[in-house]
Amino acid sequence: MRTVRALLCGAAVVAALPVMAQETDQSNSEILVTALRTTTKLQETPIAITAVGQADLENKQIANAQDIAKAVPGLTLIPVSANPSTFQLALRGGTEQTPGLIVSEPAVGLYVDDVYRGRLQGSNLQMADIERIEVLRGPQGTLYGRNTFSGALKVITRTPGANDKWFNASAGYGSYNEFRGDASVGGALAGNLGGSLAVFYRNQDDGWIFNRAQNRMVGRENNFVGRAKLAYDDGTLKVVASASYAKDVNDGYLPVNVSFVPDAARVNYATRVFTRNARPVVAGDPFVTSSPTPSRGETEVFTAGLDLSYQVGAVTLRSITAYVDTTDYFRWDLAAGLQVAPTVFISTFDRGSASSARQWSQELQATGASLNDKLTWLLGVYYFNEQGTQDFSDAFFGFQLPLFVQRTRTDSYAAFAQANYALSERTSLTLGGRYTRDDKRFDATIAAPTNLTAGLNASFDAFTPKLGLEHKFSPDAMGYLSVSRGFKAGGFNGLSRAPAVLNAVYRPQTVWAYEAGLKAEFLDRKLRTNLAVFVNDIDNLQQTAQRGTDFPQINVGSARVWGVELELTARPVPGLDLFSAVAYNNGRYTRLDPAADAATSGARDIPLVSDWQVRLGGTFEQPLNERLLARIGGNMNYTGPYNAAVTNALVVAGWTRIDAFAALATADKRWELNLSVQNLTDQVTYTSGIVGPPFQPALNVLRPRTWMTTLKFKY
C-alpha cells in the first residue's frame, strides 16, 4: 500500500502541473551528444543513451553523481560500505559491490571530459558547472578506454568559448543545517582564448542518524570543488587545458541496525544456510546505529588534462592527456555495532583504510570521412597507467588484526577502430573492434604474527568487436540492431587475509550483448520515444564471496540478463515538459560453480537487478505578470525489489521516492528563488547491507525527507 500511495502521489505531482504556459528553454529541440566520440544528434545515435542537460540537472534535483539514476532507466547507484564519496553501481547485469578497494574496477566506465576514472573512490561527483551528462547503456568496448563492460557514464563540464560569457551563482540553506553555494564565471580572455572558473561548497553541520553508543547524531558532510579551464579555438586548432580539485569529508559509512522476521527461518548463523527472500524490519526509529567506532570518510581528487585537436583537411587529429591523483580514507563498523547490555556497546568489524592512486592516460585519435562522406571512421590508440597503495587496520569484535598493506600497478594498452558505411540514403552499417591488454602487479604484506606476503603478476587481453545495422524509416524515426562484446579484466583479492585466496587471481568477465532499438519523434518533436530491447550473456561472472571475515572476489559462472527500456519526453502544450523512463530487467544465473556462494545458497537471481524501475515527472512554467514567472516540477522514482547479496539472502523491498520544487523567477530568468524537497513522502529506504554470519544484520538507509531553499543568479 505504501508503494501504491507513493505512485499515486507521484502521478498527482505531474497531473497538478497547469496546462497553460509560455515557451521555455526546455523544448524538445535537437539534442547533441558525443557518445560516438564525435558530435551526433541524440535521435540519430544508434545506441541506448540518456542525455541530461543543465536544466534537467536542476529540475530533477541531480546534485551528485549518485542522483543520475533518477533520470536513467535500469541504472542503479546506491551507497557503499566506504563513505558517501563512493557508490555501488549496476547496469544491465554489470555490477561492482566493493568499489572502495584499490583492486576494484567498475563494470560501468566513469568518464569526466572524456578521461576515464580508474577509481570509484571520489566518483560521487558534485554536479558543479556541468554542461551535460550522457549515460551509454550496453558494452562500449569499441570506442572507450577500459572496463566499459555494460556501459559508460560520461560527465561533460562546461568549456569556455571566446564568443560567450556567463556568470552563475547560487546560495542555499536546508535540512540538517546544510549550506550550499556555488559560482561559475567564463568568457573571452583574448582573441580566440576563453577561460572559466567554477567553485562549489557544501557543508551539512548536523547528522541524520542517531548513534546510541556515542550518544550523538552522525551523518555530517563537507564538500568542496574547484575547476579552472582555458580553451583556444581558431577553427583549425582547438586546445582545452583544465585542472580541478575536489575534497569530501564526512562521517563515513553509517549502516543501521535491523532484524529479520522470522530471523531463524531466514538465516542460520551456525550452518551458514541462507534462505532466500529475507526482508528487513525495524522496531522503532529506523535511523539508529550502535557502534562505538568513530566512522569517518575523507577523499581528495586532483585532476589535470590537456585536450588537443587539429583539423587536417577532412581528418581531425586529437590527443587527450590526463592525470588523476586520488587519496582516500575511511573507517567504519561494517555491521553497525552490537549492544551487549543496556548501556554497553561493542564494535563488530572495525575497519580503517588509507589509500592513494595516481593514474595518467594518453589517447590518440584520428577521425574523418571518405568515399564522398559515405564512410565515417575513427582510429585510436590508448595507454593507461595506475599505481596505488592501500592499507587496512582491522579489529574483529575488539581483537586487533595485523596490519594489511597492498600495492598495485596496472598498465593498459589498447588499439581501436570503428567505421560507419552508408549502404543507401537510409541504411548504414557499423563495424568496430578493440584490442585491450592489461598487465597487472599486486603485492601484499600482512604484519606479524601472520607474516604473510604475496607477489602476483597477471595479464589479461581481449578483442571486443561490434557489428551494427541502422535504418531510417523516415526523417523522424530510425531503428538499429547491434551485437557487441564487453570485457572487464581479471584481478586480485584485496579483501582476504587467507593465504590461498590472497595468492589467487580471478579471471576476466566477458559479455555478448544483443540489442535492438527504435528512436522516433512525433508531432513536430513534441513527443520523443526511445525504445531498446537487449540480451546480455555474461560469462566468468565476477562476484564477491564471503568466507567469515574474508570477502574474496571469484568467478562464479554464467548469467543472462535481458530487458526492455523505454524513454518518453513530451511537450503537450508550450511550457509543460513531461518525461518518463521505464525499465524491465530479468537477471538469472544460467550456470554456477558448485562452490560459489550463490550455488550453496540456492540463489537464482544476480544481485542489484531490479525487475521494474520507473522514473516519471515534469516541469511547468507560467508567467504571473510582466516581471515574474512561476515554475513548478516534480519527479517520481520507483525501484522494484532486488537482491542485495549474491546469495539472495537479502531482498531489498522496492521503494518510491518523490522530489518536487516550486520557484519564483524574474521574467528574464536572471534571478530565481527555489524551494525544493527530496523524498516528499518521507519513505524509509534501505538499499543494501550485510546479513551473513558472523555479523548481525545491518543495512544502508537513504536520507529521510529534506528541503532546501536556494537563491540563484544567472547572467
From TrEMBL:
Localization: Cell outer membrane
UniProt organism field: Novosphingobium piscinae
Protein name: TonB-dependent receptor
Domain TonB-dependent receptor plug per the UniProt entry, residue ranges: 42-152
Main localization category: membrane
GO cellular component terms, semicolon-separated: cell outer membrane
UniProt KW NADP keyword: no
Family as reported in the entry's similarity comment: Belongs to the TonB-dependent receptor family.
Residues spanning the signal sequence: 1-21
Keywords, in A-Z order: Cell outer membrane, Ion transport, Iron, Iron transport, Membrane, Receptor, Signal, TonB box, Transmembrane, Transmembrane beta strand, Transport
Membrane topology qualifier: Multi-pass membrane protein
Stored SUPFAM superfamilies: Porins
Keyword 4Fe-4S recorded: no
Any GO BP: iron ion transport
Annotated Pfam families: Plug, TonB_dep_Rec_b-barrel
InterPro entries: Beta-barrel_TonB (IPR000531), Beta-barrel_TonB_sf (IPR036942), Plug_dom (IPR012910), TonB-dep_rcpt-like (IPR039426)
Record-annotated TonB-dependent receptor-like beta-barrel domain positions: 257-680
